[in-house]
Specification:
The complex is a heterodimer of chains A (311) and B (430). By secondary structure, chain A is mainly α. In chain A, 70% of the residues lie in helices and 3% in strands. The longest helix of chain A is centred in the C-terminal third of the chain and has 34 residues, at 276-309. Chain A starts with a helix and ends with a helix. Chain B is an alpha/beta fold and 430 residues long. Chain B is built from 18 helices and ten strands. The chains are: A mainly alpha (311), B alpha/beta (430).
Chain lengths: 311, 430
């Protein structure tokens, strides 16, 4: 958008004003059909509920009625829902800094002039991202279960204490899968940003007597700040939407409830309890919370972000 | 131009209406060709359906595997009313009230009342929900029995428990004699298993009187069962990990778990999950609450239902009755689909003459199974079993990890079930 306007001004108006809209139509239509309509439908569903009469067994014993805001009242008053939100936030507070820290560290290591096997390293670190999260969770699930895990096998053979990873350590177990799958992608984003940094900056720094560590901390990290912020926002959004890892692990353990994360609660409401109305209301609440958290995060780092972009 | 368009539309519309009218009037014509769709998950059922199609050129059935169990319920409820619903659907017994309550099933009593005599009264009662209507034809049942490792029982000098007190004693004996092994495990992931055990003790979770539901998930019988298992878990006499996990498979296979209170379909599961132990297991009646009794509950079992959307309910019912009562079809379901038939005559049919291959060491497997099946108690399921079952998983998993009493988990199930029904507007008391 920002790039298009000066060009338009220069060319003056040579075409009728409807033309841009004609070109925009496919985009607008798709936006309406695949974005606004489903959201509108969800809002509509969230305002309705089912009303049963008597035994609820005969024909027409079940009607859909207008429910006002009662579904929202129910979800906002549901302790389980808040507990699931809290778990998701805890998950995010552990996951996002650890994952981005690791990704940054690995990107910096790969970017040092002395790094060997750079291509292989990049691929090896990126590869877990290519494993679908359901498969990853199944793989890790096997590694967590004492009776089938090679880790426990070794610990048993050495007579060492065996941690109950799917018991008390469940949060760590889920976070671990997220980190394993997410580091690679974020590393590549940060690494790409690093490669775009002009090399004369490093030369100047070296001439001024900077060590590699100082270059990393004083030049590279500030230079890739926009990339870090972007990956941070995306990871934060993904945090509130964590679903497939705990959902896949759930049948293996007693420590994951069907409402462990907000999306798991929505899934359970919609497809296990057949109550799509409450699920719709909860979806809206989660969407708003995600917006709030990501905008909050952006605001927090706004000054940094814009000072970098104006450069 | 515009006028032409209107005329064309009108002509087209008239044509469509005329065709629709034809379709309706032809519904009663026995010579009309009818094609039915059937959503089911029974393996190889298309081979059984092919037999029907060959013999009934006017009623052609197409079976398709859309999903299993609860997922199929969700799928049917979503497809209902959109014109995409099938004519026939496989439904587990506990799902019937949910489907009926959502107006997804047709009342086929007009065509199916003659089939009642083919089934044990307890089984038939489940598909009528205790009313005058008939909502499905029973297909398979899952009477519960005890499976145990005969070789390990011999090695450790254990006797097969006849009562639950014996069972508890054997569980402690196992821990004493061989600390790496457990008699069995309590699973928080399988509400259908627990409800079967509760049925044996006489639990009645839902009942209908007049136009009122009564919910009593935490009745005395269920609490007795919950306290019993909770006690065993608390003292460490049995394991507390869920069933049907890779770990559970490994433990069945390597002999860490010595027994499994399960249903008649267990041989198929054991053969698939613990293949190394073929010929080492034996089956006995479930332990009893009082010595000398012979009672059991059911875990699983399903039926063939006709959907409310079907335009050919009569033809569909005809097929459903054939599928689940005729010798030809039930033999196919047993040998190719691996089910244990609900129809009484099929339970002693030639297809069940010899024991399952995995239990070749127990030639009287099916005669014994038939005896046990006759002792299964009936059970009425409610219209929100999904809520009860989902609460079971969360509440019992919580009770195990937080080491709280199992009876409180039952109370949580009662509260959740009752609240859900009250909120929906059912006429219900707790």
């Amino acid at each position: 958008m920002a790039l298009a306007s000066p060009a338009g001004r220069r060319r003056r108006r040579t075409a009728p004003s409807a033309v841009p809209y004609v070109f925009l139509t496919p985009g607008i239509v798709l936006f309406i059909l695949t974005f606004l309509v489903p959201i509108g439908y969800t809002v509509w569903q969230s305002l309705r509920r089912v009303r049963v009469s008597g035994l609820g067994l005969g024909r027409g014993a079940r009607r859909e009625v207008f429910a006002g805001l009662s579904n929202y009242r129910e979800i906002l008053g549901d302790a389980e829902f808040w507990a699931s939100m809290q778990r998701a936030l805890t998950y995010g507070l552990i996951l996002v800094p650890t994952m981005l820290g690791l990704a940054l560290l690995l990107a910096l290591i790969l970017d040092t002039p002395r790094a060997r096997l750079r291509r292989f390293g990049r691929l090896a670190i990126f590869l877990p991202y290519a494993v679908p999260s359901v498969i990853a969770s199944l793989l890790w699930g096997f590694l967590y279960l004492p009776a089938v895990s090679p880790l426990h096998y070794v610990l048993r053979a050495l007579d060492l204490p065996q941690p109950d990873l799917l018991g008390g350590g469940i949060m760590g177990a889920v976070v671990n899968i997220g980190i394993w799958g997410g580091v690679g992608f974020n590393m590549v984003v940060i690494y790409t940003a690093l490669r775009a940094v002009p090399h004369d900056l490093y030369e100047a720094a070296r001439l001024d007597g900077c060590s590699e560590v100082q270059i990393a901390l004083r030049i590279k990290v500030p230079q890739v700040m926009p990339a870090l912020i972007m990956t941070g926002v995306f990871s934060t959004i993904a945090t509130l939407q964590v679903f497939s890892e705990p959902f896949t692990l759930r049948p293996l353990t007693n420590s994951l409830q069907s409402t462990w994360t907000p999306l798991m609660k929505i899934y359970t409401d919609a497809f296990v309890r057949n109550d799509i109305y409450t699920a719709a209301a909860a979806s809206i609440v989660v969407a708003c919370a995600t917006l709030l958290v990501s905008f909050g995060f952006l605001r927090l780092v706004q000054a940094r972000a814009f000072s970098q972009e104006d450069r | 131009m515009r006028l032409k368009f209107v005329t064309a539309t009108a002509v087209l519309l008239a044509g469509v209406l005329a065709t629709a009218a034809c379709g309706n009037s032809g519904g009663t014509n026995p010579d009309e060709k009818v094609s039915l769709t059937f959503w089911t998950w029974v393996p190889n059922i298309d081979q059984v359906v092919a037999k029907w199609n060959a013999a009934n050129p006017n009623i052609q059935v197409t079976a398709s595997n859309q999903a299993q169990g609860d997922e199929l319920v969700t799928k049917l409820l979503t497809a209902k009313g959109t014109g995409n619903a099938p004519d026939l659907v496989q439904a587990e017994y506990q799902a019937l009230p949910t489907l009926v309550s959502n107006d997804a099933l047709a009342d086929i009593s007009a065509y199916a009342s003659g089939a009642a005599g083919k089934f044990a009264p307890g089984v038939w009662n489940v598909v009528t929900l205790g009313t005058d209507a008939v909502y499905a034809i029973p297909q398979d049942v899952g009477p519960m029995m005890l499976y145990y490792r005969a070789d390990e029982f011999d090695r450790l000098g254990l006797t097969v428990p006849k009562t639950w007190d014996d069972f508890a004693a054997v569980a402690r004996e196992v821990r004493q004699k061989s600390p790496k092994q457990y008699l069995t495990t309590f699973s928080s992931a399988d509400p259908g298993w627990f409800v079967g055990l509760a049925q044996q003790a006489g639990a009645k979770w839902w009942s209908i009187s007049g136009d009122k539901w009564t919910v009593s998930v935490n009745d005395a019988a269920s609490k007795k069962v919950a306290d019993y298992w909770g006690g065993l878990v608390a003292e460490g006499a049995i394991d507390n990990k869920p069933m049907f996990t890779p770990e559970w498979n490994a433990q069945l296979n390597d002999g860490t778990l010595l027994a499994w209170p399960s249903a008649v379909w267990a041989p198929g599961v054991l053969a698939g999950n613990a293949g190394d132990t073929a010929g080492k297991w034996k089956m006995a009646p479930l332990p009893q609450w009082n010595a000398g009794e012979s009672k059991t509950g059911s875990w699983g079992g399903s039926s063939t239902a006709v959907t409310a959307d079907s335009k050919h309910a009569e033809a569909a019912t005809k097929f459903a009755i054939w599928l689940n009562t005729s010798d030809d079809a039930t033999a196919g379901l047993v040998t190719q689909g691996g089910i244990y038939p609900a129809a009484s005559s099929a339970q002693s049919g030639p297809a069940l003459a010899s024991a399952p291959a995995f239990f070749s060491n127990q030639p009287d497997f099916y005669p014994l199974a038939k005896q046990i099946a006759a002792t299964a108690s009936g059970f009425t399921f409610g219209p929100d079993v999904n809520v009860t079952y989902s609460t079971y998983k969360d509440a019992f998993a919580g009770a195990i990890s937080n080491k709280t009493p199992f009876a409180a988990a039952l109370d949580a199930m009662q509260t959740a079930t009752l609240q859900d029904m009250q909120q929906s507007g059912f006429n219900v008391t707790g």
